[in-house]
Amino acid sequence: MKRNIFGIKKTVILLTAFITGSYCFAQQIDLTQFTAEQYRTGTVGVPQRAIDGDTNGSWSNGSVTHTTNNDIISWWRVDLLAEYDFSRIDVYNRTDCCSSRLNGVTVHVGNAASTDPSDYTLIGTLSGSTSVQQLNTNVTGRYICIHKDNTGQPTNEVLSIAEVHAFGALSGTTPAGGSGQWTDNGNSISYNAGNVGIGTSSPTAKLDVHGALRAEQHVTVQAGSSYKVAMNGQSDGYITGRDNSFTNKFLITAKGNSYLNGGNVGIGTSAPDAPLTVNG
User: Fold this and answer.
1) Are strands 265-267 and 276-278 parallel, antiparallel or unpaired?
2) Residue 242: beta bridge partners?
3) Same domain, 163 and 185
4) Could you give the CA distance from residue 149 to residue 72 in angstroms, rounded to a whole number?
5) Does residue 12 carry a pLDDT above 60?
6) Is 38 within 8 Å of 66 (Cβ atoms)?
7) Backbone conformation region of residue 117, classed left if phi is above 0, alpha if psi is from -120 to 50, else beta
8) Are residues 114 and 82 part of one domain?
9) Mind listing the pLDDT tens digit for each residue in 185-216?
């Protein structure tokens, strides 16, 4: 806040709230909203099965992709329609049989509408494991492409994928930890330069909120180690203010007595000359 509030010239707003779960800017991306494609489809193993939200690797469950037999090169790709900053890609294998089909298969991210792995950034190489394979990365791109090359192999195996999960955020929306602005420190995140806007792209204060603001427990306006104004929204909700000696000067509460401890109160006047001056 930039103005003097209850005699306090320099204040810091401290918002305390409950957060369920752990925060993470690298949220799972909902791939089910996008369209997948593959080189050629064998039987009924359509490419959309790899982003249908079902990780079941049994063919009979109807959620595993399948390219055609005897292809030297096979690929699967999904277009996210915009650039994302990826932090991890998970790949689930077929589990009822044929898990070796993913052995040596490569996972790529890039921006070219291409199926050539040289146009992408390599994220990792898969094995025939039937456990989820997690590939950590730090790359930006629009497409995820999974590529299988049977060159020099005794048989041309098909490409089968049970599910693909991706984690990250739209490019430009993830705070850059360690960049001198956002700093990620375990369960906390801090910003040490400029202003933060919520509902506005032109914040004029350290925290500028355009819209309703809700706190689960309480909000305090603080100077030094003690609060000056506090608002508590629990069952015994109150608003209270302290002076420089940390004495409560006023209390408005939903439970018990409310009071003003110091100064005069004016109703209909801005210059009260008694503890209660009513003009009207």
Assistant:
1) parallel
2) 248
3) no
4) 6
5) no
6) no
7) alpha
8) yes
9) 556 666 666 777 787 777 888 788 887 777 66
Q: Is 4 a member of any domain?
A: no
Same structural domain, 97 and 58? yes
| Structural domains of the chain, count | 2
Domain end point (choices 136, 170, 204)? 170
Q: Which of 170, 190, 213 is the last residue of a domain?
A: 170
Shared domain check, 31 and 134:
yes
Lowest mean pLDDT among 19-28, 48-57, 116-125: 19-28
Closest by CA to 237, choosing from 222, 221, 215, is: 215
Listed range (24-38, 115-129, 250-264) with the worst mean pLDDT:
250-264
Q: Is residue 6 part of a domain?
A: no
Write out the chain in H/E/C secondary structure.
CCCCECCECCCEEEEECCCCCCCCCCEEECHHHCEEEECCECCCCCHHHHHCCCCCCCHHHCCCCCECCCCCEEEEEEEEEEEEEEEEEEEECCCCCCHHHHCCCEEEEECCCCCCHHHCEEEEECCCCCCCEEEEEEEEEEEEEEEEECCCCCCCCCCCCCEEEEEEEECCCCCCECCCCEEEECCEEEECCCCEEECCCCCCCCEEECCCCCCCCEEEEEECCEEEEEEECCCCCEEEEECCCCCEEEEEECCCCCEECCCCEEECCCCCCCCEEECC
Full domain range(s) for residue 87: 27-170
CATH code of the domain covering residue 32: 2.60.120.260
Region 50-71: mean pLDDT is: 96
Kindly tell me if the per-residue pLDDT of 118 is higher than 50.
yes
Residue 5 lies in a domain: no
φ, ψ for residue 47, nearest 5 deg? -65, -25
Residue pLDDT, tens place only, 120-176: 999 999 999 999 999 999 999 999 999 999 998 877 889 999 999 999 999 875 444
